[in-house]
Amino acid sequence: MLSTFRRRLATKASNSQFNVFDRNAKLVQRNRYIKKHPEETRKVEYLRDEIAKKTIERLSFITRDLDNLLDFGSNSGNLLKQLCLNNDNSLQEDKDKILPKIKTYNMFDSSDILFRDQNEPYWNNFEGKINRIQNDEEAFNDEILKPDSFDAVISNLSLHWINDLPQTLSNINRILKPDGLFLGTLLGTDSIYEMRTSLQLAELERKGGLSPRVSPLVQLNDVGSLLNKAGFNLLTIDVEDIVIGGFPDIVSIMNDLQLMGEQNVVLSRSNYLDRDVLLSANEIYKTLHGEKGEDGEVTLPLTFNVIFMIGWKNSPDQPKPLERGSGQVNLKDVL
Cys-Cys crosslink for 257: which of 163, 226, 262, 272, Cβ 3.0 to 4.6 Å? Predict the structure, then answer.
């Protein structure tokens, strides 16, 4: 395994009309615990690792080589980590199909989490070259991001913090080779609905109004049009709900989200949450969504609505529908 890395970070909010998130605050959030409490941040990788496994399942159906692959918004490299680990026999056949197809694996992320696990032994199971590039995903100005450069771009759980998502998807299309693969995941609008509704009801009860406590997320119905406008063809879109259970209270959920770097960074957000609102939200959460165990203890679930999207860059070699009126079978005869 060969490994190189480059740091060049200039996160800066653009003047785009699409600005919703504070990108500088998001970078601070994501970096806050990486060096001080690396082990604590590793404990909350469960969601990203699960998404990586589900991405492996989908990648196993791709028959072509993925020589030069970009993991855009890679975090710590969860996808390659899951490909290298020998901890899931049910996925081992899929991993054995995928790993030999990748010659160069490029991890691209703005956060210091990119380097947190770089000395872990499991990377040695990858025989290709690993590049770690630290730069701003939204700026899209790194020298590696050249047109027609990558056989595949993977993006897992990072695009939901992008302000101008249509432009970023267009940029991803631009750097793919003709007929290149894009496989991404986004958190859908129904994610963490249990916590969102509990906070809303608590704030209405205690304050008589609402604050934007949870970031806006993408609607499933909008994903297809976003990919089409970005230039992708042959779309495949599906959605899965991943439920994480066993949280003792809402504070534990917020603590995990904080360690993940997934706190709210909406520009119009409120930076203060009253104690009485939090206590009320915890009781509402337990009442509406709590799960009672055999011992009678009530724990809290948290649902992540994950949208999986696959698109292909346009190419003359792609299969195309027949011209209108060229069919040889009358539907009346079939039906």
Answer: 262
The answer on pLDDT for 10 being more than 60 is no
Strand 68-72 with 150-156, pairing: parallel
Angle, helices 275-289 vs 250-260, to 10°: value is: 100
DSSP state for residue 103 in the 8-state scheme = S
Q: Are 71 and 157 in contact (CB under 8 A)?
A: no
Listed in sequence order, the residues at least 6 apart from 331 whose beta carbon sits closer than 8 Å to its beta carbon are: none
Q: Which of 267, 219, 217 is nearest to 17 (CA)?
A: 267
- Considering only CA atoms, which of 276, 313, 319, 290 is closest in space to residue 170? 313
Strands 232-247 and 298-313 turn out to be antiparallel
Which pLDDT belongs to residue 318? Answer: 76
Please provide residue 204's backbone torsions phi and psi, each rounded to the nearest 5 degrees: -65, -40
At residue 317, what is the residue type?
D
Looking at residue 227, its amino acid is L
Residue 175 has pLDDT above 90, yes or no: yes
Q: Report the relative pairing of strands 68-72 and 104-109 from DSSP bridges.
A: parallel
Interatomic CA distance for residues 220 and 99, integer angstroms: 31
Architecture, CATH, for domain 2-315:
3-Layer(aba) Sandwich (3.40)
Q: Which of 19-28, 55-64, 287-296 has the lowest mean pLDDT?
A: 19-28
Which residue is listed with tokens 């529908």? 321
